[in-house]
Structure formats: C-alpha cells, structure tokens
C-alpha cells in the first residue's frame, strides 16, 4: 500500500514554504525544546519507557478532562485510530462507515478490509462553500448492523465541524455500535469535544502532534467513558508503544498546566486571525475556498488540476497538499494549511503567476 500524506521531509525544510502539513504554524513552543534538551541530557533514550505510562496517562487525562481509566496512551492519533478499530472488532463490530472525504480514507479502506470489516462510505455533500454531513444517510447505513462510524471532527480536509447535538443523534441511533470521533485538530478551534457527550459508545481520538507541531514525537490518546472498552484497548496496545524520549518530553511539558492553557488559547486566536486573512486573499484570486473552523482550508481551482498546481508551486518554493487523493474529491482540489500573513502573501504572488498563465 502506497501511503500519501502532506508534509515535507526533513532534508527539504529550508527549500520550501510548507502549506502542505497541518501543523501548528507557531511551531513547537520553546518550553518543548527545553524539555527535549533536558530529556536528552538525562539520556531518556537509554531506558525503556514506563510500560503503563502512569505519569503521561495522568497528565493526558487532565489535559482532556477525563479520568485515568477512561484513556489509553497511544502513538499519535494514527495508533489510536487503529486501536479503536481493533477494539470495536473485539466487541463484535463487523461494519465500518467512514465519513469521506477524510484523513487516510483510501488507506483505511485497505486496512479495514485486511482486518475483515465490511467498509462503507458516506460522502459529505459539497454545497458551494462548505461540506455538510448527511446524518440521515449515515443513520440509514448503520441500521440493524453491528457497526462503527468514523468521523474526523473537525474534518481533514474539508474543515467541517459537526455540532455535538448531531453527534449525539448519530450515537443514539447506533446504540449497538460505536461512533469514533477523530479530534486531531480540535485544539485549533473554539468548538467542544465529543467527550462532553459523556456517552459510552462514543470513542474519541486525540493527538499532541498537531497542536505542538511535533509529528516526530508521537503521543496521542484513545478516550472512552466505557471503562471495559478502555481496559481491553489497553491490553491490545503494544507494550512501549511510545518511545521514552516522547514520554519524557511530554511528561515534562504537560506538567506545566497554565503554560499549556496559554499556548492553546494563543494558538486558537492566531489561527482564527490568520485563517480569515488567508481565505480573503485566496478568494480575491477567484478560488473557491471552503469555510473551515480548522488550521487548514480546502480550495477548488477549476482551471488547473491539483497535480499541476502542486508541481508549478513547488518550482516557486511552495508546497501544497494535493487533495485529489481523498475519496470523493476531484482532481481540482487542494488543501492548504494556515500560515502567517507574510507566507500567505508569498503564496498569493506565486499562485497569481500560475493562474495568470493558464
Ligand atoms: C484527521 C487526522 N487524524 C489523524 C492524523 C494522524 O495524526 P498523528 O500524527 O497524531 O498520528 C492526521 C494526520 O494528518 C489527521 O489529519
């Protein structure tokens, strides 16, 4: 399976302005860099991590407002997603409905098929400048099935947020099954977490990699109020699924509760301001920009396929994410993460040059 994601590689980092990876544009905070230095000087990497991640689990539970026995520590959101699938399967679920277009949806089809799931897709509807979820369609798809529904909220790449009352309605309709909500980008928004629903059949996927811009330090979590579910998921997760450097760094960082709150709220404000600027500038170029609550926007450019736009912008030193790799999106879609007005001005100049010569 050939996996396609946004993001540039380490050796490319000085060559391009990266609009392709959905990380916090403020970058990792200095406090995190200090924690890395401190963990390296303690030679954390020479020791096995705590197989129970006692400290990290406690701190993540505090961060997400749940208790220790309602959370499993995972290697980013990716592992939390896989773990949620393995665990629902253990509880008799054999059908998965994926709300697309969404993160990794083509790969998910392959993975879930390999696991033995019957996997169905429900496509969000493109209604001009936003995508909406057809919750009746979703509910009908799962009717009288032992099913789980997977939704990323806010959704990558559409930037859509599905309100809690809709999630509650779906979770109630799938009483015998599960609703898995991937909240990898929730910390960039002013929206509420699905943990607020307090429902036993809602599973919530979390990650620190996006908000702290550290995809190379992999910490996330799977949350559920169903303690039996969490116990089983914790048995299934591999021992030492997080390396000791990541464990050490994030245990130090998360212990500074007031700093974390400050950093997250500053990020929300910056994202909201920079996103408004970016959307305005892109719309001035005549592009269709979809409403987004997240740290990225989906763009439609009907005059040029995304493969060509991608390679032309790369020549101008700008990386964007082709979005034609997502289920349900045509070759005229790209995704751009929110960056500073300075970077957006450079993007607009480069885009202007490309679009003028079509
Ligand atoms: C919606 C969504 N979920 C999960 C992930 C994976 O996150 P992590 O790096 O924490 O595994 C991504 C990464 O792009 C994502 O967009």
What are its keywords?
358 residues, alpha/beta, Aspartate Aminotransferase, domain 2, 2 domains, 40% helix, 17% strand, binds pyridoxal-5'-phosphate
What does the model show?
The two termini are 34 Å apart. It is built from eleven helices and 15 strands. α6 (164-173) links the parallel β7 (147-152) and β8 (178-182). It has a seven-stranded mixed sheet, sandwiched between helices. A four-stranded antiparallel sheet has the order 11-12-15-14. It has two domains: 10-25 and 259-356, Aspartate Aminotransferase, domain 1 (Alpha-Beta Complex); 30-255, Type I PLP-dependent aspartate aminotransferase-like (Major domain) (Aspartate Aminotransferase, domain 2, 3-Layer(aba) Sandwich), CATH 3.40.640. By secondary structure, it is α/β, with parallel strands linked by helices. The radius of gyration is 20 Å and the shape is globular. Pyridoxal-5'-phosphate is lined by residues 22, 76-78, 103, 152, 156, 182, 184, 207, 209, 215, 220.
Brief account:
This protein is an alpha/beta fold and 358 residues long. The protein has helices spanning 30-41, 54-64, 76-90, 105-115, 135-142, 164-173, 227-236, 244-254, 257-284, 306-315, 341-356, and strands at residues 17-18, 71-74, 95-100, 118-123, 125-126, 131-132, 147-152, 178-182, 202-207, 220-224, 288-289, 296-300, 318-319, 321-322, 333-337. The chain is 40% helix and 17% strand.
């Amino acid at each position: 399976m050939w996996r396609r994601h946004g993001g540039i590689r380490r050796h490319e980092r000085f060559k391009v302005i990266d609009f392709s990876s959905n990380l916090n544009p403020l970058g990792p905070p200095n406090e995190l860099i200090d924690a890395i230095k401190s963990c390296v000087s303690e030679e954390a990497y020479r020791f096995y991590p705590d197989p129970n991640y006692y400290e990290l689990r406690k701190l993540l539970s505090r961060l997400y407002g749940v208790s220790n026995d309602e959370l499993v520590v995972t290697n980013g959101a990716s592992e939390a997603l896989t773990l949620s699938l393995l665990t629902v399967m253990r509880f008799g679920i054999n059908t998965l409905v994926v709300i697309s277009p969404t993160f990794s949806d083509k790969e998910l089809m392959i993975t879930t098929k390999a696991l033995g799931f019957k996997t169905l897709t429900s496509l969000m509807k493109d209604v001009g400048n936003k995508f909406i979820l057809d919750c009746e369609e979703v509910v009908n798809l799962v009717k009288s099935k032992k099913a789980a529904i997977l939704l990323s909220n806010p959704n990558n790449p559409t930037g859509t947020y599905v309100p809690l009352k809709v999630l509650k309605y779906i979770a109630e309709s799938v009483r015998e099954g599960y609703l898995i909500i991937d909240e990898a980008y929730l910390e960039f928004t002013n929206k509420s977490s699905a943990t607020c629903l307090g429902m036993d059949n809602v599973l919530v996927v979390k990650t620190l990699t996006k908000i702290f811009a550290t995809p190379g330090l992999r910490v996330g979590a799977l949350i559920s109020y169903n303690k039996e579910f969490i116990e089983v998921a914790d048995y299934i997760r591999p021992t030492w699924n997080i390396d000791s450097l990541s464990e050490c760094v994030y245990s130090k960082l998360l212990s500074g509760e007031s700093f974390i709150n400050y950093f997250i709220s500053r990020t929300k404000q910056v994202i909201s301001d920079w996103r408004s600027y970016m959307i305005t500038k892109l719309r001035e170029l005549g592009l269709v920009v979809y409403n987004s609550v997240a740290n990225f926007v989906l763009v439609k450019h009907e005059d040029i396929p995304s493969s060509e736009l991608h390679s032309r912008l790369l020549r101008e030193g700008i990386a964007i994410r082709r979005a034609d790799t997502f289920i349900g999106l045509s070759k005229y879609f790209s995704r751009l993460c929110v960056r500073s007005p300075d970077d957006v001005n450079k993007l607009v100049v480069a885009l202007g040059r490309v679009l003028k010569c079509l």
